[in-house]
Amino acid sequence: MIAEISPARTAVSLSSLLCLDDVEDAATHAMAADLRDFVAGGAGTETTLRANRTALERVRLVPRVLNDVSACSTETTVLGTSTTMPVLVAPMAYQRLAHPEGERALAAACAGAGVIYVASMLSSSTFVDITATGASTWCQLYWLRDRGQMTNLLRRAESAGCRAVVLTVDVPRMGRRLRDIRSGFTLPAGISAVNLSGDVGVHDGSDSESAFMAHTRLTFDPSLSWSDLDWLRQRTSLPIVVKGVLHPDDAQRAAELGVDALIVSNHGGRQLDGAVSSAEALPAVREVVGDRCEVLMDSGIRSGSDVVKAIALGASSVLIGRPAWWGLALAGQAGAARVLELIRQETEDAVALAGCRGIADVRSSVRALPAAESWSW
Q1: Domains along the sequence of the chain with CATH
Q2: Mind telling me the catalytic residues?
Q3: Residue 210 predicted with pLDDT over 70
Q4: Which candidate, 111, 2, 1, 51, places its Cα nearest to that of 267?
Q5: Using the 8-state DSSP alphabet, how is residue 146 labeled?
């Protein structure tokens, strides 16, 4: 089934949406079923998709008291960039499926909110159009068979003003996403990855693989290895962020090789079904990395309390993906801005109620415990 370029939208008062679940409910009721499944779905039986939420729900914060929180801030820095909160918008492909303005609308919402926008290599808007919104932008890459095209992508990203390169390393092949295979989900003719030359296979699915699986098989290089980080470093002066790390040994090696940041991520449950949740993997990664590089986390963040939990578990910042898409699909830039304002408000509330004046206090003084962990200090 070929998706519509933009889903039907419903009249809804954005001020009536009081949490990210409200945004998701409103957006998914307005979207075509195949597009909703493309965004919401995970790989296999979606065990890891569910585990991302379960793990965060199990974490319990141990707040501090008798601290003056009359002035409370969520501001922080991420790779030297000042942001209003420790939240970035994760890379997501083909955002013009959600709204005609696509990436430009979501990036503009990020610019207004003062947070970093991570532009997917598979964006349906150019890097230049994205950075023209004024958003602090990072460029995300997959490892391509065509090294010349990768070099050109890096040059275009740098020329457009992107501030970091995010190499996603957990997609040697695309996970088997059954919802997309069953629906025969493909892109409409008006949508493509405009920063790539030749979106091979992405409009043609089959009974055994989705169009996106076919595209990945034809264009992504599964031979990606540690030595390729040196190739990347030689071709860009931008900070390098490695996304998709879960094992502490991999985190250790990446830090030793001098990456600037890691993103603890299982791709939102869309790759290896049965993989550990990001929240469960995060503490061990932070422990082995120490302060050698920043450690971010994504997959499953749905509230300001989740943000504070991740910070207390060792994250420098977090990324949100699907919630931003829901807001974009619901009301374009205004809907995405509502999502970012809700999570900022919730994060400020959670910081203050944890007895902290800012993000640094959360890192230094708030404990985050799994529900089954005994209380011993």
Answers
A1: 14-367 (3.20.20.70)
A2: 267
A3: yes
A4: 51
A5: -
